[in-house]
Amino acid sequence: MSDKPTVILVHGFWGGAAHWGKVIVELARKGYTSIHAVEMPLTSLADDAERTRKMIAQQKGPVLLVGHSYGGAVITEAGDQPNVVGLVYIAAFAPDAGESPGGITQQHLPVAAPNLEPDSDGYLWIKADKFHESFCQDLTPEEGLVMAVTQKAPLASTFGNTITAPAWKKKPSWYQISSEDRMITPENETKMSARLNARKVITLAASHASLASKPVEVAALIDEAATQLVNNR
Q: Would you state the CATH architecture of domain 6-107+157-231?
């Protein structure tokens, strides 16, 4: 249906655009025909935000940005484009000006923090044998294995990159908290969601990978956001 906005899905650390696979299928079932999942380099917030802005600029109509994990920081930084009509955060960072994902993480260290390790090139990995229990404990061991083997490590320095002008201060937002998250503490997610003045906040009994373990519920929140935005135009 042509009245639906374009949905751009923005992945986080330790994964790529394919992490959105199940949500993409659910959105397609709901009639979304313009869905894009940006593939970011995870080399710096500036690089990732620029890649996302370029994809936003390619769209002709209104865009709803959806960010998972670190992708929330990216949509916060890149969501200032005029055709962006809303932001949806999925177990995601929603930093304020001057804040970084790393700084927020240090406030309440997540359970899985000890399972991260840098390599000699400066990339930060989740230890492969700890990936399932850290990132996606509510998926099958086989799904966790695939995610572990295909994980996309960020440059560790990206954690310290700060937001300049948070888009959520100007754009309507929605937020999904994962109550069993071991990568971003639920306490941090609750704090970030509360200051967004979000149109709606939902809590799912899910791991950090709620986009994969609860795709029906995640897609429903995205659809609810899109529907509200269309009806308010």
A: 3-Layer(aba) Sandwich (3.40)
